[in-house]
Amino acid sequence: MKTYFVSGATGTVGxxxxxxxxxxxxxxxxxxxxxxxxxEEFGDAVEAVHFDFSDESxxxxxxxxxxxxxxxPPMVLDLFNLLTPFIDYVTGKSQRIVYLSANGMDDLKxxxxxxxxxxxxxxSDADWRIVRPGFFMQNLGNYERENIEQRKMVFxxxxxxxxxxxxxxxxxxxxxxxxxxxxxxxxxxxxTGPDAMNYDQVAKLLSDVLGEEIVYPNPDEATYRHVLSxxxxxxxxxxxxxxxxxxxxxxxxxxxxxxxxxxxxQKPETLREVIARDFTK
Length: 281
Fold this sequence. Notes:
Layout: E1 3-6, H1 12-23, E2 27-32, H2 35-42, E3 47-50, E4 67-70, H3 79-91, E5 96-100, H4 113-122, E6 128-133, H5 139-143, H6 145-151, H7 168-180, E7 187-191, H8 199-210, H9 221-230, H10 235-249, H11 259-264, H12 271-279
Parallel strand pairs: 1-2, 1-4, 2-3, 4-5, 5-6, 6-7
Helix pairs in contact: 1-7, 3-4, 8-12, 9-10
């Protein structure tokens, strides 16, 4: 049985990758800084291993596997330097590597880490595959839930442009395919849902599904930064999130692709489906 190493195995995307691999009959090394969380999530269906990108003594946990999923931790401005030692480690062992990048960030000068990691992989002899997912549909439930449920708003500085959201479940299924399919060597895929919408449309969709009015105030960057500061968030959070949402504002993430269906053979989930699942349990 082939075995695959999944970093970030207890996170929003990592758990979906693990589930997809298990459903395909593969063995999984579920890697995280807190292996007990993997045991609580997956029981004995996985081999839970301790792994930390900042601790090179944990890198050997990936040895002997047939493929490695590289998923960096969120909100790390110096992510490339954090990931580089592990990328060097696995490319040196000629393992198959799937790297989770992000749609639009390949040329984002303020946050260059994904572009740097992609370039590093492409310059290697490794069997690399890159996925660039759009904004995650599940982020509404994971990060905007308090605003939506308590304040009846979606509060992000994304302007009026549309973006092609994607379900993390579809990302997980796509990554599993890339880890296990010999035919996808040296390819890059942009993963989106079936359509693009702006946040005013998202608010209207939330209103329809939840049965109460949800609004999108469309804050400018200064207002967004001020509100985060007043809420006690450190400055680097705004420094990170404003350029990311700027990708939407600048129209760089509105393209809809069929890469999810190409990889999985299934139509991607819609935002309505994900909202209904995440908010009306």
